[in-house]
Design a protein that fits this description.
about 350 residues, alpha/beta, Rossmann fold, 3 domains, 12 helices, 12 strands, about 45% helix, transcription, DNA-binding, Peripla_BP_I, transcription regulation
């Protein structure tokens, strides 16, 4: 039986081998009608392209890297699923690199990837990242990079995020409208773009309702769970403890739950709570957790789509662009109170 190859497909369709190859790679140079004809015949003849051979011819690895702080965080797990949904369509492998929120680990990974073992990078930076020379050096090697969620605005490339400022404002406003008058903000790291914008939204919410901002109510936690626990405990045992808490990330909210349990504080009667979270069990917590739910899967999918768009077109760089996807406020029992008419 004759082995089906690109030449046979091209002969059957009356087009060039190059056209068939590009159609199978979903190239922007080929019309959708031609792509459909090529794919239809390929399926009919049970043709399976060899991605490794084509990669060698084009000097591509057909592999991208995803650099994230952690995967225990539900946001990143969902974002990676979104990334892989696009990578699979494109016939690419995905390598996941965990920085464990360490700048030195992030730097080491970027230096490792400079060898050219990957075609592109999707990246969310660590809580410790202030310098970005290692990222610039990686891009100088001709490796395309797209940021998602935690971004560095100093780097010229595409960035996919959610509406952190607007959502931060909405979260604060929600607590105020449910009776909270003294609202704390739990920060993960002032180095993070997401933290800065969410805090700015929180401050705008206080200003909008003529509530004085108390510096002691902005608590800078760390990625160390025990240290964060002690800082939140100190906040909730202070003489003028807050009656509302806005946590910038889900981990700080779950720690706040544990602290309230230790201190016998009732949520939401004593402390109302809301946070950014993609926690699947948020509705099952006791009480159920009010969240700003991010479109995590869509953020990962959009970041990957942008990267592959430029890989397909063999671009040397990606233009600076900010893509913002909207998050949704989901009110649950943890923030409920007597709704105020303001």
């Amino acid at each position: 039986m004759t082995k089906i190859n690109l030449k046979i497909l091209a002969h059957e369709l009356g087009v060039s081998v190059s056209t068939v190859s590009k159609a199978l790679q979903d190239s922007y140079e080929i019309s959708q009608e031609t792509k459909d004809k090529v794919r239809s015949l390929a399926r009919k003849l049970n043709f399976q392209p060899n991605p490794y051979a084509s990669s060698l011819r084009r000097h591509q690895t057909r592999t991208i890297a995803v650099i994230v702080p952690e995967i225990a965080n539900n946001f990143f797990a969902l974002a990676i699923n979104g990334i892989e949904s696009i990578a699979q369509e494109k016939g690419y492998h995905v390598l996941i690199y965990l920085t464990h929120d360490s700048y030195e680990k992030e730097k080491s990974i970027c230096e490792h990837l400079q060898s050219g073992r990957i075609d592109g990078v999707l990246m969310s930076v660590t809580t410790e990242t202030q310098e970005y020379e290692h990222i610039a050096k990686l891009m100088d090697k001709g490796i395309l990079l797209v940021f998602f969620d935690r971004v560095r605005h100093e780097i010229e490339t595409a960035k996919v995020t959610t509406d952190d400022f607007v959502s931060g404002l909405s979260a604060t406003e929600h607590l105020i409208q449910n009776g909270a008058k003294r609202i704390a903000y739990l920060s993960l790291s002032p180095n993070l773009s997401i933290d800065y914008k969410r805090k700015a939204g929180y401050l705008e919410g206080l200003h909008k309702y003529n509530i004085s901002q108390a510096p002691e109510l902005i608590v800078e936690c760390t990625n160390n769970d025990e240290e964060a626990y002690q800082r939140i405990k100190a906040l909730l045992t202070s003489p003028h403890r807050p009656d509302g808490v806005f946590a910038s990330v889900e981990k700080l909210a779950t720690i706040a739950y544990a602290v309230c349990q230790e201190l016998s504080l009732q949520i939401p009667q004593d402390v109302k709570l809301i946070c950014f979270s993609n926690l699947k069990i948020a509705a099952l917590l006791s009480p159920s957790l009010s969240t700003i739910t991010q479109p995590a899967f869509e953020i990962g999918k959009e970041a990957a789509s942008i990267l592959f768009q430029h890989l397909d077109r063999k671009r040397a760089s990606i233009p600076n662009e900010n893509i913002v996807l909207k998050s949704i406020l989901v009110p649950r029992a943890s923030s409920q109170g007597e709704t105020l008419m303001i």
